[in-house]
Amino acid sequence: MTAGLTVSPQCRVIVDNDYGGDPDGLVALAHHLVSPANTVTVVTSSFLNPCFSAGMPGAQDGADLARELLEVIGGPWRLPVHAGSEQPFGERSGSAASAAIVAEARRDDELPLYLACGGPLTNVATALRDAPDIA
What we know:
With 135 residues, the chain is of the alpha/beta class.
């Protein structure tokens, strides 16, 4: 019998995706959640590009699906899930999601922070516009 390999968290991760279209975003989120090498600290949701869905799921719809996934997977996660802007990048694209990205980027922590993105990059672009120091 061999001892198992112990993997400790090497980084913090913000996962940003649209979650409301095809399941790739939810699969990526699940992967990040169960990976012992990282610690997901924030989940943010984007609107789905209308080109990909007749129903045009919004950022809040994606946030609801991400919360549902967190419940299904179980575990110690009580992660904040923030809905992003329902508008493309522009003057009115500020949101709880972009503010959460800024707050986590500014939080003092010994682990480096990575941002895993899929879907529209409105939340990320807005966070960088509002706080260029986080780049």
